[in-house]
């Protein structure tokens, strides 16, 4: 269907847009709020903070997560930190500078108005989290401590050792628990959303399956928020949790919601390298390590000497060499590509040659082992545990891995998708990071959306709808249930011999090879064809087993893999359509002589918003042009 | 390496469960324990049999989903390590390994290795928070917090809510889990206004959820993958006692004034 995109960006100077918008949007009066119900899917940073804040305001809230407890959402695994423009370090930070860094870091493919709001709200997030009792790192003065992250020349990252995501999520989980206890939020754990209910063009509810009992159920509400994270697991191997999936946002797409920039994916430079065929996931080593670790490979191709046997002048500190002003703290997309370039050229280290060193020897010499242990102790232990090597003595081996997805459901300034009443928050939307996200900005965005944006903008929408307008007996509800039931029955009746994971792995390999760190028109065309063929095989040769009326993990996976197959194709189509390189999207045909991304602002300065064609055959592109009035469109350089 | 696994199979909460024997070959020492279970499940699907259900998600030791005991020990033999972070290099060719769900009265088995730990959520819901609404927070650096205290609060807050402490305790006690949250918030100025009510509400909920009492076995601390210290239990006991006395005195005060 053709989309009419209205981004609803408020008028006026960028620094006044949000305050003016808040002052002019409509409100729901306190006694009417309890008449409205809101569904929140996902309980990570964005979902938990939104559900808790809605509950505090007086709305009736139903929250859902597929994990057995809301505390286990994958935000819990974020390690490094959260950015905020507090300028506690007196090093020249400001809201404008955080805004500037984020727009530039995103390679000029994000909306200025949204990014500015994010930078503005960042300071309140830290206040809120401290008030909840989040134990951020502190100095001996008792005041909050900061560290640096990639793509910035100031120290604005707040952290709690290497467990910042855990502590922030437990803060949001605590706020959510308080609302559950008061009865404002009804929590539904181990319950997965499998379809949307749309009535007269508005989103009015969801259909879910209880993963413990298999019971299918419909829930109606006046608005639905999807805060269901990203789709890195389309690559099968990623740093995401095993359950992370694209299903909720793909179901929304199938109902007509626009999907923006699906090809914008982030490959994180510092993950522990792949070890073998049965590997199920990749483990990240926080970007914060690049504060003190130096990245290098041997200067000689195929050098198999142990790292300590390679003398200083035979090492290539390639990030420091290529990007002297940002060095080891270059942004993620750049650091990842530089690692791939060295490994492809035969300089990689480790058994398969797919690795580079991250070396702490200098930092340990300079600061002492104790200081390094205090900063990164848990990360070093984790590395030791997985690799069997002690990083205090031997440099870490790292390699890029899929980590985050900047693309997602298209939303307007109010975080509403193209389906009225359906909102998307956190990683599930496309809003703030353009073509590349800076480190420590995901936590910031998830919490900004949930604590400080949605509580305002959802009221604006609800004030214009009649509460409780759809009943559970409505034909739209029955139709949605029939669709879900039909799909589950199809999975259970598949007569093949292969587990669905088998096809997920094959799909992931195609995506990693052809739509990963570098892409080409030829490769993408081949991938689209291969995905189609493999999808046929998946449907004809998979086996799920068991029944739908019990805990059935193969059935859960089947639904997620089926949606990844459809989504993967759209991702390749988007990558093929964008004939430029920008941020995490690197098209081999478009690069400078020294191998840097070659952006094309004349033809591609837009967000690509895809929608399903009404006849069901293929996808249609609508463009949301991007304007840069505050940050000058320039070639992104970290040299 | 080749291994013999005895895995607890139980169709549902009401069914009788038992160990099933599986031989598994060509396990790489770089694989994790859960990847070995993945291999087993792959084989089960290929032979048309139902897979082993087990909780897992992040596979990096932080989400707390793992809920299996390996050779009788929650999360297996390695200290400070969840089952997902246990690597097969800790085993040798020919080893026999028993895998079963966490055992505790308050954690009924749902299926195979999956248990119901919702009681943990209910303990947190009873008071594991600071009652601050969104938007009501003062400037973050308005209050300095001694670094030592902030660090200690972090150590207590590092609990991942897996339930190994309960599974390891002969009494099935949740004291370590509850103490970790009580201590985290008791150490911080933000936690003071609700300190008494919090500890009373959380402990009463813990008792109502059928967790046992603490009789100082110390198994919880041994089993905890995050190294949560048993000293927090004494903090919990102190807070509980003083809060109980305070509450009793305040009730008496009210009665006398009537």
Number of domains of chain B: 2
Question: Whole-number radius of gyration of chain A?
Answer: 24 Å
Class by SSE composition of chain A: alpha+beta
**Overall mean confidence score, pLDDT of chain B:** 96
CATH class of the largest domain in chain B: Mainly Alpha
Total beta strand runs of chain A: 19
The helix/strand order of chain B is: EEHEEEEEHHHHHHH
As an assembly, this protein is heterodimer
Principal-axes geometry of chain B comes out as: elongated
Q: Please state the second-level CATH architecture of the domain at 271-402 in chain A.
A: Alpha-Beta Complex
**How many helices of chain A in DSSP terms?**
17
Largest beta sheet of chain A, briefly? 5 strands, parallel
Task: List low-pLDDT spans of chain B.
Answer: none
Task: Please give a structural write-up.
- The complex is a heterodimer of chains A (639) and B (258).
- In chain A, α3 runs parallel beside α6 (164-182), α10 (361-367) runs antiparallel to α11 (369-387) and α14 (500-515) packs parallel to α16.
- Chain A is 36% helix and 15% strand.
- The radius of gyration of chain A is 24 Å and the shape is globular.
- Among the domains of chain A are: 271-402, Succinate dehydrogenase/fumarate reductase flavoprotein, catalytic domain (Flavocytochrome C3, Chain A, domain 1), CATH 3.90.700.10; 475-605, Up-down Bundle (Methane Monooxygenase Hydroxylase, Chain G, domain 1).
- Chain A is α+β, with helices and mostly antiparallel strands and 639 residues long.
- Chain B folds into two domains: 3-111, Roll (Ubiquitin-like (UB roll)); 118-257, Fumarate Reductase Iron-sulfur Protein, Chain B, domain 2 (Orthogonal Bundle).
- Chain B is built from eight helices and seven strands.
- Chain B has helices spanning 33-46, 118-125, 147-157, 164-168, 175-186, 195-208, 219-223, 231-257; strands at 3-9, 18-24, 68-70, 73-74, 96-101, 109-111, 114-115.
- In chain B, the strands form two sheets. Chain B has a five-stranded mixed sheet with strand order 2-1-5-3-4.
- The longest helix of chain B is centred in the C-terminal third of the chain and has 27 residues, at 231-257.
- The mean pLDDT of chain B is 96.
- At the A-B interface, α3, α5, α6, α11 and α12 of A face α1, α2 and α3 of B.
